[in-house]
Structures are given as structure tokens and as C-alpha cells.
Amino acid sequence: MMRLSKISNAFALASICLGLAACVPLEQQGYATSGSTTQQQTVRYEDLVYDTSIRSVQCYRGTGGPEAVLEPAVVSIGQEQPILLEFDRLNAGPQRLVAKLVHCNADWTPSGLNDAQFLNDFNEFFITDVQNSINTRVPYVHYRFRVPRVKISGNYVLQVSEEGGNLLLTRRILVYQNLVAVAAKLGAPTGPEGRAARQPVEFNVFYKDYALVNPAQEVKAMMRQNHRWDNAKVYPKPAFVRDDQRRLEYVFFEAKDHFLGLSEFRSFDSRSIRFKGLGIEQINLEAVPVHIKLQQERSRAGLAYSQDPDADGKMLYGNREYGNSVVNADYTWVDFELKTGEEQGEVYIQGGMTDWLLNDESRMRYDQEQQAYKGRLLLKQGYYNYYYALRPAKGQAADASYFEGSHFATGNTYDILIYYRPPGSRADLLIGYEEILFNNR
User: Fold this and answer.
1) Domains of the chain
2) Per-residue pLDDT tens for 167-222?
């Protein structure tokens, strides 16, 4: 489960820090939306938006209540709680959109299963829960979809397209069946650097009641931090196989095998555009869309750990003036500024709001005169978490610790995924799942 107490504290803090113009379509302001694509219409089996008119995508386990959107898109095979998908489409009237599911292997390539092997229904679902925005300067249509039940565990990719084929978005979903037991624990720190900055998590897989054939080769494990896919760690085989105990041991001996703890996320709150919320320096109500400038920020590397409440990099949409965040929350330009002195390399805004992608939209530009990196995103009103990350050169991974620092004491959520392909099967099944809260408060 998410750290609900920590998240509630974050929203409480944001709450303390707290006559619209006519709607003007964004394309009239030089911003392309409906119909423009970010890439070719080739399906990629990951969290991705293919059309720039699609915004504010959230895929989550529907546990009820406003904080449910912060839950991961992970459910048990019984599916007592549904997976829900919500998103907006800017500057377009209601259209018939179609969703479908694709079963994938552990490496997110399509499995060899046909639709009838994992679904009871025809694999084409029209999205019928559709609402127009109300009293917003940027018009949009809000879509909501309940993902249908499936028959087997594993990785699934949910695809949404226009009727007729134009692909709009894809989202990853996990359906697990606890055929094995996963027990996670705090591991041993590795070296001085690992002790201060990394969070060692180790785990065992017990298969007493489920026969695994050749587990050293056929079982694959994965661990995520805060439900992110961009930096997930993959373990193709266990460190030890204890046949006599029917147990697989995953222990790690190098610092690189443990996640950096990083810091609590930076936050801002734009749920009110009449009062400056958490992290906001200036609001320009005359601009259309409304223009929000965040407070100038600096690197936190080398600073002492600060126990700030956060939502593990995710976001919650809302409108404090009108209340109905689904259709009353407006879109605003949000300006980010990171003071660095000299130019460092490529700097990106990372978080759920950018799908953790390193692309042109999330990249900041260096202002030589101000000696700062600046970025701008079109975002729905809400409470947001984010990091700044440095990519020293093309092709290299982005390093959030460069600007954020890293601490053992940071509160993070880890989940462990256990995959297995039974003999004679054509697909990897998700046979075990466990979540561990690190430094839960």
C-alpha cells in the first residue's frame, strides 16, 4: 500500500500554502494539440503518449477516495479492485475511442497468447465515460475507463486509439497471482558510499506449494522504486537456490545493485490560481492559459536530509475554487527554473507528470544571462512531485542525485515482481508480488 499518512501530510502542507476569461484553443496560441503526434504510430509496449492532444494520463488501482490515483496499476488475479484509466484530450469534441489489451512477457514484448486465452470478451472496448470540461480557458474532454477483468496473470499493455486506428496512448498494467511467497528485508550496506546514499533491499522467494521447474533459469525477478519503470532493476537469476528449503535467495554484493535513496521529491501546488500555493512564485491571470512561475530552485546535493512530505513522484489534480477536478481543473503553463551557475549538460524535469521520459518536452534550456536552466510544461491544476536530473551526454542515463543528493533516510516504496514461464507455456506469468515501504513514517 502507498504511504497514506505521508501523502496526507503532503496534501495538508500544500493546503496551507495556498472571473475567468473565455476559452481560447491552444492552437490559436501557436501550440499544436489535436492530431499532432510525438512519433510514428508504432506501438511501444511502455507508458507513452503518441498524440500531443492527450494530457494528464493516470492509470491506477481504484481503491476509492481521492488518493486512489496515487496507487499503482497493479491488481491481484481476483481483481477485487479495478484498474482505472483517466486522461484528457485538449481542443477536441467527444470522440469514440477504443481500448484493447495486449498480454506481454516479462521483458514487455508481446506474448504468444491469443485474445481468448486471457480475456472472456472481444478485445475491443469503447470508452463511454466521457465529460466535457466546464468553465476552463483551455477546453478539453475527460475520459475514464475501467479495465476489463483478465483470466491469467502477467504484464499487460492497455492501448487507446481513435475508432479507425490512430493510436493515442499506451499504459502498463500488472496482474499478479501469489503462487509463491515473496519476503523482502533490509539488506546489508555495501561500502561507505552505499551506506550513506543507497537503500539495500534483499528478498527471498518461497515456492513450497508451487512446483518450479529449473528456477535458476526460468524465474525472473524485477524491483521498482516508487513504481517507476525507467530505472527498474532486473534480476535474471537468483544469487542462491536452496532446493532443500524450496527457496530462492536474492542478495546483492555491489552498491550498484541497490537503489539510490535520493531525496524527498520537490513539490508545488497549483490547485488554486487565485492564491499562491506551495512552491509558486507568481501567477499571471491575464495570460491564456494562466501562466504560473515556480520559485527559483538550486541543487540540494550535499545538503542534510530534509523530511519533507511527498507523494513519491506522482500528482493529484484539483481545483480549489470550483471543486470538481475532473472537469473544472484548468490547464496552465508552469515555468521551472534551476539556478546552477555554469552550464552542466542536459537537464530534465522528472516525475509522473513527464512519465519519467527524457524527451524534448521535459528537457530544460540553459539561460546564459541568468545562469539557470529553465523549462516550461503545460499542466492541469494539481499537486505535483518532481526531480531535476542531469544527463551528461547523449545515450547516458539521467542522474537525479546530481541535483537532489541521496540519503539512506529517504522514504521510498519498493515493489518486487516474480515472473515464471511454466513448461509448455508461451507466456511469462506474474506468480509473486510484494511491496515494501522503506523508512515508512
Assistant:
1) 32-176 (2.60.40), 181-261+410-438 (2.60.40), 266-404 (no CATH)
2) 999 999 999 999 999 999 988 777 666 678 999 999 999 999 999 999 999 999 99
d(CA 283, CA 294): 9
Rounded to whole angstroms, the Cα distance separating 132 from 352 reads 24
Per the CB < 8 A criterion, the answer to whether 289 and 273 are in contact is no
The three three-digit cell numbers of residue 71, written as one number: 496507487
Q: Please name the residues in contact with 150: beta carbons below 8 A apart, sequence gap of 6 or more.
A: 77, 79, 101, 103, 118, 119, 156, 175
C-alpha cell at 397: 542515463
Query: CA–CA separation, 41 vs 159, rounded Å?
Result: 12
Question: For residue 431, how many other CB atoms are within 10 A of its CB?
Answer: 24
What the block records as the C-alpha cell of 259 is 537503489
Within a 10 A sphere around the Cβ of 440, how many other Cβ atoms? 12
In DSSP terms, 381 is beta-bridged to: none
Question: Could you write out the DSSP letters of every residue in 92-137?
Answer: -----EEEEEEEE-TTSSB-S--HHHH-SS-S-EE--EEEE--S-S
Are 53 and 90 contacting, i.e. CB atoms less than 8 angstroms apart? yes
Q: Residue 262: CB partners within 8 Å, gap ≥ 6?
A: 387, 400, 401, 404, 405, 406, 407, 410, 412
**121 contacts: CB under 8 Å, gap ≥ 6:** 148
pLDDT per residue over 393-423, tens digit each?
887 889 999 999 999 999 999 999 999 999 9
